[in-house]
Amino acid sequence: MNPSEVFEIIEKHTRFMRDSIPLIASENLTSLSVRRCYLSDLGHRYAEGKVGHRFYEGCSFVDEIEERAVDLTKKIFEAEHANVQPISGVVANIAAFFALTDVGDTIMSISVPCGGHISHDTVSAAGLRGLRVIHYPFDNEEMNINVDETRNVALREKPKLFILGSSLILFRQPVKEIKEIADEIGAYVMYDASHVLGLIAGKAFQNPLKEGADVMTGSTHKTFFGPQRAIIASKKELAEKVDRAVFPGVVSNHHLNTLAGYVVAAMEILEFGQDYAKQVVKNARALAEELYNLGYKVLGEKKGFTETHQVAVDVRDFGGGEKVAKTLENAGIVLNKNLLPWDSLESTDNPSGIRIGVQEVTRIGMGEEEMKIIAEIIDAAIKEKKSAEELRKEVRELKERFNIIKYSFDQSEAYIFPELK
Length: 421
Description:
CATH superfamily of the largest domain: Type I PLP-dependent aspartate aminotransferase-like (Major domain)
């Protein structure tokens, strides 16, 4: 095997994505300015420790970059303290667990079928930290936490940490109310903002820190414009605990090339984030409404379907999430099967639902009219109104009209895949 074979596989993947409608809720595109940072000399270097207190020499310019990253993060999220060293959302969550809990503590989180992320649960990071996990009482109709029942459980179980934020998240969560309960029992509140970080930055969603959360974690590559890494924002009294948990706790070198990319992305969010976030939510609602009008069981109907970038659809009537997701991929629509609140963890192979995210198609300039077209293609694929070949042709024709990355400083020449231009 030689390198050319790897590059050929990469090109095949790139062409596949170029010719598809990407609706994975946890992905987004970075601008060319952000991508330039990936290929810089920073990708070869180490910078263990804090700004101004490194364990290696040669880090003075890295310090400048990290200082900017911290300052921008604090400004964007109105945070008292920020740590920008975690290299992924799960790493940020693990650091928060180290900072806020001890082995054997009880934490309360949203169950995976109800939308919680696996890192909040026993099977993943929380379990590896040695935490006892209990789940919030959840209202399936509201697609949200039942606060009154939560208070009863919390007063009995006395969790040390309440975790909010979800992997499937359609609506604002009761941060203020949970913080009041936490204060009663001397607990912390942590909000995992990975999915909605860009919406918070764009002021189109609740800011958990302003509503009382002690710590907010978040990956920077979903609704935010950045590369794949993460941030932790917190109250200033937790700064030392958070920083020690990150380094030397769970991070050594923190991938300096993508750190620089994060700085550029944060600048883009400050400039374009509000317009972008507003359009993301408009697009998600437009897509949800059109799917509902086509006869699909779209969750959250009573509350306007969604307040985020996500749309959740119960597709049991069409064979379940596994079958539908594969059918749509064959037609050029890329999304994921997803557990819904009534599913068990044993249902992961073929859960009830699919999860749709519109943040990436919004980044390339699509609006409400395109959401209607996408809904029609989804409907035609699931109900076999047209062949997969016909639908892939329609997808390619639609996608060809949207080949520039918007909401960026270099959008006049920011082809999505310049290597294929």
